[in-house]
Design a protein that fits this description.
heterotrimer, A mainly alpha, B mainly alpha, C alpha+beta, A: mainly alpha, Four Helix Bundle (Hemerythrin (Met), subunit A), two-stranded antiparallel ribbon, two-stranded antiparallel sheet, 24 helices, C: alpha+beta, Immunoglobulin-like, five-stranded mixed β-sheet, 6 helices, 10 strands, elongated, disordered N terminus
Chain lengths: ~850, ~120, ~260
């Protein structure tokens, strides 16, 4: 095939690409899937939630500013502090860095968009709808009120009979869909969708940080999602899971929550650290000192943060040696943090640092975050933690870490990238005032709070007597809180003024060397008119003329071919170009899917279960429509990319981004399944009220046949793929038919086992066993749906020797389901045998 | 020796810390089981069964990750002897450094086995 | 001779800080370490303006027992170390802007030396100190230990002695003897609560279905506050009781009276 015709001029290219990549105005904006638009939406929405969380914080400070306050009673106060934590963690911090990552990453990586624009849009709508559920509940006075970590049994039905706890469990799970979809999207995009030539050692440091964060989300969020599902099932259907009177254990919730909850802190910190690592070298006028050490530190923090969840549970009665393991691990995480801090300081010391508003906020970051880190080491010390745990000392510590480690870098980032977002120059007169108000207000609020905690003030009390001597400290903290709020209000004003009146900026106002500054500012929908070929990790510094060349279409894909949205996918390690990625354009499907998903979640919340089932069916049906985008009835073959070379399109070249996405989704799935198995073993060893009165004993034959069916399905999936790759689509159809039958048989067998299994409401053993069975059943059901999809694709001619991606993805799923099914059913049989038949001795 | 760096090599970078995580889970798990099954009361010479087992598992995991570090360092050395690309140097260095860091983390984490009470 | 002089000096310092003559005599015979801790505590608290000191019924900085004292000592030590490290970072940041000449951007100095070796050394020492301190506070088996069983429910505690001893009336002050270790075995009948007498030592959670043990000891008579530390619902704030530490004879008398 010949090279497509190049547009006559850069302006014509710009118009062509804008027509293809942009969303229509007005109502059509709801169909936007573009990363620039979505990134902005995430950032703005997260900031609105930050305002809500901030107002809630002000209410908290108003209430405890003085002793004997009569502002609100405990009913309202409990909702306020629960929602403050929940909003700030789930609706502000995570979506905020997701927004920055979605906005920045494709541009930094020198590509036109992320790998899955529709998934990004779907994630955004899930976030918006889930967050709205929580806010609506707050407005109606039915917000969650059991604390943001929702400890059972306080959050269980007997002690929280209202809808409040359900709002948390269902709303947050809904929101977490966006975290998971963003994580998969970011991970696959960083690994595969970069500019050609961008090998791992040339990747911008922010991409390394986000790579680590994305993996952390995939492993860290599933335990909480599992915990939320189990707790909701206990609340709604009475299953025994966390109830100590029925063989459950409140500690199971704590483990599941904190296996998520501690990595979460670093999931929030690392993106901010990535921004710090990006901005500091620019301001210091030199490269980042110890690039590979910083990468090592980011990876180390990512892993180590999974080994310290128990430090939130030092007081629950765990043996000293176990506490000491986690104490040691908690101290360990300070070491890579130290490496980063000193790499940044060394960069500044050996450069010629400029002093401006972003740098001012970074200095604030150093001041506050280092203090938070130091108190973090203190609370990692077991005896000290036993004193200050659950006091205002910990409140002070966590705000130093999160505000210092996230809010200050984000404000630095806001001032740094605002010229990029708006195309206008900053007006910094207000920026200094913003900094000093927030900085002084913050320290006044939270520095004193350390002492308040040491003087014995516990968290979450709504009033206190004068005689405790906490009055003056709390009053000053409250005053500081209001000073800080004025600072944030001024920040909003400053941003609005800049967006409205700021003078237009030229390209790359800071003299940065990362590729996001090679796009036009404000960025166009397509990002780059043509894709750069990267030869250095400081591409923009070495080729300052790059932006013009790219706009003129001198890079790769500098043309508008057949109205396609094209970008390039590369080899993970070397960055060698591998595939042309054909992306979907504007579509209402993500919004529709999120609405269907929302129907499911809202029906669950209102306990209208038939409608919830309708919601699931509808969601699957809409997702089915997503597959129409890449489907083709004929091979395209290799296509020219603009430099004389030819590349295949992603649907015809094996391991496409969507295949990798399923790999990473299965990683998250495995983390969820692992947590479920951990739950069974944990309860068995630790929970009171074991052994259970009744075990699953008469289903061995069914379970063994189900395992055989699942293994058979995996084998058939492989046969079908092999046939398709030979071009024998007819045979693929045959194997696929058997595959569907195997999954259907598994469904029936598991349903049969479930009907004869012990009553899940009677004992936690039966509850977790049933949960494992349901888990495998759901996987077999999805396997069946995938088989139906492959059937349809084969019948419509979408499958050929080259176009076998659907079958490859199917094979992954069937393999995983077989392994999980065999492990799950094997565990159930093994535990049942080990517990033995009660009454038989 | 030249080593072609394939995507699977990313797993080698993650392997050391994955083993560290495994060691943490195993140590914590064995400790919990030992306290339930009374291994702290069984004496094996100067040590209790509990502590002996924990010491053994700890040192074993340090050893395994140290071997991994040795291997990744050997790859790095071998590559340096040739004329490696910056990418190869970076990737091999990262694998070696992550393995060494994981070995150090495992060593540090297990130090309390030498002193802390196992079941109180 | 040497020691006497040192004690005299310390005593003189204490006189400056504490105007109560009784307490000076008492403190004068304390162990050196405890004296230093008190001195450091007093100095630190006096530096905070507008406050009468680090006292208060729930203050962890006004310890009245060996466990709380060990933790307070740990706190002052860590505060000093943290202060130095914080100062180091701030000085580096300041120097980055104040220096005329640029520092050499050496990965060895900055990243490996200051970033890796320095914290590793400090943290190893801290881990040792922490584990040894923690070890001393554990409820190791002992002869003299008094056992007390506490049960939490929303939003009150009840206590009794397991060996048929007298119960303590609900809501009444919990009475413990001075100078004798007490193991409190806590559990809960409903949600999670946490047992905490800050002036005596750390906290332990009361979990439904589990019994946890904490060892506390009062080294001086007095009345101490005890507050539920784990959020437990609407009445969490009010889940408070007093603890009276009384000399052994008084302890017998008072507990006899409830029989």
């Amino acid at each position: 095939m010949n090279e497509p015709n190049r547009p006559a001029s850069p302006v014509e290219l710009h118009h062509e690409l804008t027509r293809i990549w942009g969303a229509h105005p007005g109502f059509g904006q709801l169909a936007a899937v573009n990363h620039t638009t979505l990134g902005r939406r995430f950032i703005v929405t997260a900031f609105l939630f930050f305002a809500v969380g901030g107002i809630l914080a002000m209410l908290v400070r108003a209430q405890i500013a003085t002793s004997h306050s009569a502002f609100v009673g405990p009913e309202i106060y409990n909702q306020i502090f629960t929602m403050h934590g929940t909003v700030m963690m789930f609706l502000f911090a995570i979506p905020m860095f997701e927004g920055f990552a979605i906005y920045l990453l494709p541009k930094m990586l020198g590509t036109r968009d992320l790998a899955f624009p529709r998934a990004g849009a779907y994630g955004y709508w899930c976030y918006l709808f889930g967050g709205s559920i929580l806010l609506l509940a707050l407005a109606m006075g039915a917000a969650p009120d059991a604390g943001w970590f929702m400890y059972t049994p306080l959050s269980s039905k007997p002690f929280s009979p209202g809808i409040n706890a359900d709002v948390w469990l269902i709303g947050i799970t809904f929101v977490e869909i966006s975290a998971l979809s963003a994580a998969v999207e970011v991970l696959v995009s960083i690994l595969l969708v970069r500019a050609p030539g961008m090998s791992l050692d040339r990747m911008p440091i922010f991409a390394w940080y986000m790579l680590v964060v994305a993996v952390m989300i995939l492993v860290g969020f599933p335990p909480l999602i599992l915990g939320s599902i189990l707790l909701e099932v206990e609340r709604a259907f009475g299953w025994a899971l966390f109830d100590p009177a029925r063989g459950g254990d409140s500690l199971l919730w704590q483990h599941l929550f904190w296996i998520f909850g501690h990595p979460e802190v670093y999931i929030i910190f690392l993106p901010a650290a990535g921004m710090v690592s990006t901005i500091i070298p620019v301001m210091a006028g030199r490269e980042l000192l110890g690039y590979r050490w910083v990468v090592l530190a980011a990876i180390s923090v990512g892993f180590l943060s999974f080994g310290l969840w128990v430090h939130h549970m030092f007081a629950v009665g765990i043996p000293h040696l176990a506490l000491a393991f986690f104490s040691a691990a908690s101290m360990l995480v300070a070491i890579p943090t130290g490496v980063q801090i000193f790499a940044w300081l060394g960069t500044l010391m050996s450069g010629r640092p400029r002093f401006n508003v972003p740098m001012l906020f970074l200095c604030g970051f150093f001041f506050i975050f280092v203090l938070g880190g130091l108190t973090g080491v203190m609370v990692a010390v077991v005896p000290f933690d036993l004193q200050v745990h659950d006091t205002h000392f910990v409140v002070a510590h966590l705000h130093y870490v999160l505000v210092g480690g996230f809010v200050f870098p984000i404000m630095a980032a806001a001032y740094y990238w605002l010229p990029h977002l708006t195309g206008r120059q900053p007006m910094f007169q207000l920026g200094h005032a913003v900094f000093w108000l927030v900085f002084i207000g913050f320290n006044l609020t939270f520095f004193l709070m350390h002492l308040t905690g040491l003087l014995g003030m516990p968290r979450r009390i709504w009033t206190y007597p004068e005689s405790y001597g906490w009055d003056w400290l709390n009053l000053l903290s409250s005053i500081g809180g209001f000073v800080m709020t004025i600072g944030f209000a001024l920040f909003v004003l400053d941003i609005v003024l800049q967006m409205r009146f700021g003078p237009k900026t030229g390209r790359n106002p800071w003299g940065a060397d990362t590729l996001e500054w090679a796009t036009p500012v404000p960025p166009t929908d397509y990002g780059f008119a043509s894709i750069p070929i990267v030869t250095s990790h400081r591409q923009l510094a070495e080729d300052p003329d790059l932006p013009r060349k790219l706009a003129a279409g001198e890079g790769l894909l500098g043309f508008a071919r057949r109205n396609w949205l094209e970008t390039i996918a590369v080899d993970m390690i070397t960055g060698a170009p591998r595939q042309i990625l054909l992306l979907p354009g504007r579509t209402f499907l993500p919004l529709g899917t999120a609405l269907a998903t929302g129907l499911f979640f809202v029906s669950l919340l209102l306990q209208v279960y038939p409608l919830a089932i309708a919601g699931i069916v509808l969601t699957i049906a809409v997702f089915w429509l997503w597959t129409r985008h890449p489907a083709r009835t004929a091979d395209l073959g290799p296509l020219p990319v603009g430099d004389g070379t030819m590349l295949p399109v992603h649907t015809e070249s094996g391991h496409a981004p969507s295949w990798w996405a399923v790999v990473f989704l299965l990683l998250a799935d495995a983390a969820l399944f692992g947590s479920l198995l951990f739950g069974l073993i944990f309860l068995w060893v630790v929970a009171p009220g074991w052994p259970p009165p009744e075990v699953l004993f008469n289903s061995t034959a069914f379970a063994l046949i189900a395992m055989a069916c699942l293994a058979g399905a995996a084998g058939l999936g492989r046969l079908a793929l092999r046939a398709a790759r030979r071009g024998a689509v007819g045979w693929a159809l045959v194997w696929n038919r058997f595959l569907a039958a195997a999954h259907a048989a598994t469904l029936l067998l598991l349903a049969a086992i479930l009907t004869t299994a012990p009553d899940p409401t009677a004992h936690a053993y039966a509850g977790v066993t049933a949960a494992i069975l349901v888990y495998i059943l759901v996987h077999a059901a999805v396997g069946l749906i995938l088989a139906l999809h492959v059937w349809q694709a084969c019948r419509r001619g979408h499958v050929s020797a080259a176009r076998s991606l659907d079958l490859m993805i199917g094979r992954l799923w069937h393999d995983y389901t077989a392994v999980a099914g065999v492990i799950g059913l094997g565990t159930i049989l093994g535990v049942a045998a080990a517990i033995g038949q009660p009454g038989a001795g | 020796m030249t080593l072609a760096i394939r995507p699977a090599f990313l797993l080698v970078i993650a392997l050391g810390y994955t083993l560290w995580g495994g060691a943490l889970v195993v140590l914590y798990g064995v400790l919990s089981l030992g306290c339930v099954f009374g291994w702290e009361e069984v004496m094996l010479g100067p040590l209790t069964l509990q502590r002996g087992l924990l010491l053994l598992l700890w040192l074993l995991s340090v050893l395994v990750i140290a071997l991994l570090s040795w291997q990744t360092c050997a790859w790095l050395q071998a590559a340096r002897a040739g004329r490696p690309t910056p990418l190869a140097r970076f990737t091999l260095w990262l694998a070696a450094a992550c393995s060494i860091a994981a070995a150090g983390a495992t060593l540090f984490m297990g130090l309390p086995i030498l002193g802390a009470s196992a079941c109180i | 001779m040497d020691r006497v002089t040192r004690d005299m000096n310390l005593r003189a310092d204490v006189v400056l800080l504490d105007l109560s003559h009784d307490r000076v005599v008492e403190i004068g015979f304390l162990h050196g370490a405890r004296l230093i801790r008190r001195l450091a505590g007093a100095v630190a608290c006096l530096t905070v303006p507008l406050v009468a000191g680090c006292t208060g019924p729930l203050s962890t900085l006004d310890p009245a027992g060996p466990a709380a004292a060990a933790v307070a000592r740990l706190w002052w030590a860590m505060l000093a170390g943290a202060g130095l490290i914080f100062a180091l970072v701030m000085i580096c940041l300041l120097l980055a802007y104040r220096r005329r000449t640029r520092a050499r951007g050496s990965v060895g100095t900055w990243v490996v030396g200051l970033g890796l070796v320095f914290p590793t050394t400090t943290l190893t020492l801290l881990l040792g100190y922490a584990v040894l301190t923690g070890e001393r506070l554990l409820p190791h088996p002992g002869e003299e230990v008094l056992r007390l069983d506490g049960t939490a429910r929303q939003w009150t505690w009840s206590f009794h002695y397991p060996d048929g001893g007298p119960a303590i009336p609900d809501g009444g002050p919990l009475v413990i003897p001075v100078g004798r270790p007490v193991d409190i075995h806590v559990t809960s009948e409903d949600v999670i609560h946490s047992f905490w007498i800050p002036r005596l030592g750390g906290k332990i959670d009361a979990l439904p279905g589990h019994v946890n043990v904490i060892r506390l000891q009062a080294s001086e008579p007095g009345r101490f506050g005890a507050q539920c530390a784990e959020f437990c619902g609407l009445g969490h704030t009010q889940m408070f009781f007093w603890v009276d530490a009384v000399p052994e004879e008084n302890f017998r008398q008072r507990t006899e009276a409830w029989r």
